[in-house]
Amino acid sequence: MATIVVPKHFSIQEDAETIRKACEGWGTDEKAIIAVLGHRNAVQRKQIRQAYEDLYQEDLVKCLEKELSGDFERAVYRWILDPADRDAVLANVELRKSSDEHPVLVEISCTRSPEELLCIRRAYHARYKRSLEEEVSDKTKGETRQLLVGLVTAFRYDGDEVNTKLAKSEAEELHEAIKDKKFNHEDVIKILTTRSKMQLQATFNCYREAQGSSIAKNLPTDAKEEYVATLRVAIRCLKDSKKYFEKVLRNSLKRLGTDEDAITRVIVTRAEKDLKDIKEVYQKRNSMPLEEAVDNCTSGDYKDMLLSLLGNEL
After folding, report:
1. What are phi and psi of 259, to 5 degrees?
2. What angle do CA 120, 308, 246 make, to 5 degrees?
3. Is 86 exposed, middle or buried (0-12, 13-18, 19+ CB in 10 A)?
4. 105 near 280, Cβ under 8 Å?
5. 305: phi > 0 → left, psi -120 to 50 → alpha, else beta; which?
6. Dihedral of CA 6/12/13/15: which sign?
7. Crossing angle, helix 12-23 and helix 60-67, to 10 degrees?
8. 158-165 — which CB contacts under 8 Å span 24+ positions?
9. Are 228 and 101 in contact (CB under 8 A)?
10. At a CB cut-off of 8 Å and minimum separation 6, what does 210 contact?
């Protein structure tokens, strides 16, 4: 369930005017910007952007980029974009990194619905004039390339039907591949990139029942190959995305030096989806509300923006 609190009565034009006023004169009224944008859903934010451009002949995104800075600017920028466009930007940022591992790309590919992933690929093409799969192919190599291209181009069945017999047989296939250290076997990639999420969850459950431990835990932890690291992230995302996002937040908030980029990404991308569920998983795992952890580890307008998306009342 979503966490953002949207008022019952508001005016799109007044919202645009409020933001304009907040950006005029000396200094910026960040609290006014948070009060508006931190409590509007994706459709409403898009309407505000259009109203702002109609009223002032200026792109609201560019205006806010000029007025804001730091982690707060990044959070507002990513929040105000259309969800598909936002994910396209996140994917592009990830592909520009020098690392051979691309966990954010895996996260996007494995936690979005088939229709959402298709929209992301279209948004990427429109923004960067190249296809996402072309970029992935150019920036990766070997088995990692094969796995990532398969993940970003997947259009999985999105229903609830599960083939139990297939789940058992493919659980055994995965076990044999892991036992023989053939993680890059074409059948492993085929299973992870083509099966529905419900089918994969059934397969992972069959694996646990047969082997006594989860498939992610049976992958070698000391392997330095980017392929195995990519495979592990994909399995965790496909198996239980809420637990995956909780772990990203936990690691980002507890590590030496807060990872603001990861915190922003998870809260911004899940606030209209399942952030309430992720909050419950976080509290159960850490004996602390996520809001409290964010309050302790962040500051200023950036903190206020995140807390708004986490469900702080108007």
Report:
1. -90, 85
2. 60
3. buried
4. no
5. alpha
6. positive
7. 30
8. 158/113, 158/114, 158/115, 158/196, 158/197, 159/196, 159/198, 160/198, 161/196, 161/198, 162/198, 162/199, 162/202, 163/199, 163/202, 164/202
9. no
10. 168, 171, 172, 175
Alpha-carbon gap, residue 112 to 91, rounded angstroms:
13
pLDDT in tens, 2-36: 999 999 999 999 999 999 999 998 889 999 999 99
Mean pLDDT of the chain: 95
pLDDT score for 126: 98
The reported pLDDT for the residue numbered 52 is: 98
How many whole angstroms separate alpha carbon 300 and alpha carbon 32? Answer: 14
Helix, strand or coil, per DSSP, at residue 126: helix
169: which 2 tokens? Answer: 């047989």
* Residues 192, 170: Cα–Cα separation, whole Å: 10
Contact 292, 253 (CB under 8 A): no
Name the token pair of 149.
């291209």
pTM (two decimals): 0.96
CA 54, CA 17: separation in Å to the nearest integer? 11
What is the separation of C-alpha 146 from the centre of its chain, rounded to a whole number of angstroms? Answer: 22
Taking Cα atoms as reference points, which of 74, 99, 100 lies closest to residue 89?
A: 74
CA distance 308 to 300: 13
Which H helix or E strand runs over 15? helix 12-23
Decide: 75 and 264 in contact? Cβ < 8 Å.
yes
